[in-house]
Amino acid sequence: MLKSFIKLFAVITIIMVVISCSTDTEYDSLVAGEDFTGTNIRVLSIDTFSVTLSTMKFDSITTSTSGRLLIGQYNDDDMGIINTSAYVQASPSAYYLSNDAILDSVGLILGYDTYYYNDTTQVATLNIHKLTDKMTTDDTYFYNTTETAYENTPLLSTTYVPTPSNDSLYLTLPYDFGEELFNGIRDNLITDQESLHQQLKGLTIQPGADDNGSIIGFSTDTGESYLRFYYTIPDEVETDEYTYDMTINTYYNHIESDVTGLPLEAITSQEDNLTSEESGNISYNQAGTGYVTRIEFPSIKDLYNIDGEGTILEATLYIEPNSESHSDIQPLSETLLLYTIDQNNDLASQVSNSVDVVTATTTDIDSEFNQVAFTVPVIDFIDQKLSESPETEDALILIPTDYNSTINKIIFNDSQRSNFNTKLVLTYAIYE
Q1: CA separation for the pair 296, 293 (Å, rounded)
Q2: Where is the signal peptide (predicted)?
Q3: CA distances from residue 282 to 217, 227, 417 in whole angstroms, order as listed
Q4: Of the candidates 114, 127, 177, which has an alpha carbon nearest to the alpha carbon of residue 156?
């Protein structure tokens, strides 16, 4: 009923440039004369509908398609201790080496992909272990909750200072580890992936248990991250050094957070919702770990209490990130995608309009105090809620495009938290 008038009165939007938003319970209105439309029209700007925020957590998210290895650990006042580790399988393009080849050394090359989060000036630890089980999954993907067993004693334990602006990080691995693999291929004992996995099921790269620095991104692309064997053929007249590479063919990131003692500790399953009132009038979003903010408009059907027949011309959600929760080393995502979730917090669908998918972007609210808000066009969702039958308990969530390949957080203020209230603003036309 409400949406049916939109096309007929699209011209009304020209009038909207002279309408300012109401900030109290009174409605601003404009009456268009009969010479203009033949009908009296009142246009109201309403920002009194309630917006409720809560935090939920997905049981798992895919991390085996991101094109990135995430490795590191840091402590976060809001999100707890964040720990990310990478699991990889590698294989060569051909199982052949000259019979006379002699191994010189072996190393793991990790190509930086420029992503980092938190403090890269802190010394970090890398522990590289051999897997004791194959990387297996019940379906096509691996998840942030997946773990594969590995040897207790690392092949290598080393420290480094992350430099994401560099090309790569080179880690020298033990000679006997490389020699077993190298000689096996040279002597035709390793001839395919199955026989390779008998010797090397894979590797995991774990951060140090006491690290408190940053999460670093490394590329999974061929030519960026790989195992490299350096070797020579001694009987040649000119002894050159050759290389033999194994590139990553399967990988995933295990991502976990220890939220002991924090409000997030109350969330124990995907169906749990931690209201913003229960967490100091804030809600949480974090890529990688699965936390998202659930957004609902419980009073939206109060629109029916306005006398007259009308239509929504515009519906915009303003949602404010907490200014103390982002910084140069914990940057704020500037664009978010809009999705719906159902009453069980299962992902339902991505919200789109006639042009493209709906996105939320940042808008400066107060540049002096570095205060910004995300603006989200939600007219399609509001129209759906007003017309649905039977009523559902679905809601909105906002996630970045790189939700499965980063660990960036956003802390949102609810409508009670600050001077600039998280709010829903409707522009509504009534025909009389």
Answers
A1: 10
A2: 1-23
A3: 29, 45, 7
A4: 127
Angstrom distance (rounded) from CA 257 to CA 288: 10
Confirm if 264 and 256 have CB atoms less than 8 A apart: no
Q: Are 201 and 132 in contact (CB under 8 A)?
A: yes
Q: Report the C-alpha gap between 286 and 74 in whole angstroms.
A: 14
Query: Rounded to 5, what percent of the chain is helix, strand, coil?
Result: 15, 40, 45
What pTM, to 2 d.p., does this model score? 0.88
Is the Cα dihedral 314, 315, 320, 321 positive or negative?
Answer: negative
- In 101-198, DSSP assigns E strands to 102-118, 124-130, 156-160, 168-173
Place of tokens 């004791």: 132
Element (H, E) at 256: strand 241-258
